[in-house]
Amino acid sequence: MAKQKQQPRLKKSMLRHSTLFFALLFIFSLLLALTLFGVGFIFVPTDSGEATSITSIVRKTVVRENEGGGDEEDGRERWTEVLSWEPRAFVYHNFLTKAECEHLIDISKPHMQKSFVVDPKTGLPRASSARTSYGWFLRKGQDAFIRNIEKRIADLTFIPVENGESIQILRYETGQEYKFHHDYFSDKFSVQRGGQRVATVLIYLSDVEEGGETVFPRAKGDFSSVSRRNNSSVCAGTGLAVKPRMGDALLFWSMKPDGTPDPNSLHGGCPVINGTKWSATKWLRMSEYI
Ligand SMILES: O=C(O)CCC(=O)C(=O)O
């Protein structure tokens, strides 16, 4: 008898407890969702721009991690711009901060030496009138800034840090240039370590008053929607041109998706007409480059 009387009370108490449990669960989930939304884990699209041109497809601020080493937000909008599909070329605007650009210039300045090209007959570096800049190779992972930049390049290209050559810093003074060339190798020596160059990330470390554009003379397509800026030089008119802007990173692919060289990736650095152009080049290989 005593047992029969206790059962409804037990049921009531269980009901009260489960109601309380679900109410708490609901409040907790609500608070969690609000917190995640607050820190940006839940993405709510705010850009209603229609994908009517190639440049509007990826226009979105890049979410960045700060792992130390200078990747501080500096308030400049970060967004990606598709330049061309033949060759595949993109600009990541404001990829580096001003502090990062200045750091790369400062540590390289005392070491700059005449730039070389690779001799296709021997695979050895040699001076050439086709490339008149000054340059310096940083060491891979040399400091926290460089480690951080190398990791971010790997993140954006999906090519592991291990496949990257050392960053090369370049300085072009008035009249200096890099004539049209491919970044992939045509000799059998250079590919022995790390295989072919698959892609290049070219980061502009300074603005240039006039000239110094990177130009792709064989790029195909309608570039009318690609953001053009004032002061384009005559050289820039010979193809798809990218005007150097401090912090912007140009990514282009020297290999097609099937792994064969893309002849349309031919490119060059136009002569600087006014100002000094500083840039950082990262060549990315097919396999580990140690
Ligand atoms: O400086 C430029 O704009 C082009 C540089 C370049 O072609 C290279 O480093 O391979």
UniProtKB/TrEMBL annotation:
InterPro entries: Oxoglu/Fe-dep_dioxygenase_dom, P4HA-like, Pro_4_hyd_alph, Pro_4_hyd_alph_FE2OG_OXY. Residues 163-286 form the Fe2OG dioxygenase domain. Its cofactor is L-ascorbate. GO terms for cellular component: endoplasmic reticulum membrane. It is an enzyme of class 1 (oxidoreductase). It catalyses: L-prolyl-[collagen] + 2-oxoglutarate + O2 = trans-4-hydroxy-L-prolyl-[collagen] + succinate + CO2. The keyword Oxidoreductase applies. One of its GO terms (molecular function) is iron ion binding. Its EC number is 1.14.11.2. Gene3D superfamilies: q2cbj1_9rhob like domain. It holds the Pfam family 2OG-FeII_Oxy_3. It is a single-pass type II membrane protein. It is found in: Endoplasmic reticulum membrane. The chain crosses the membrane at residues 20-44. Belongs to the P4HA family. This is procollagen-proline 4-dioxygenase.
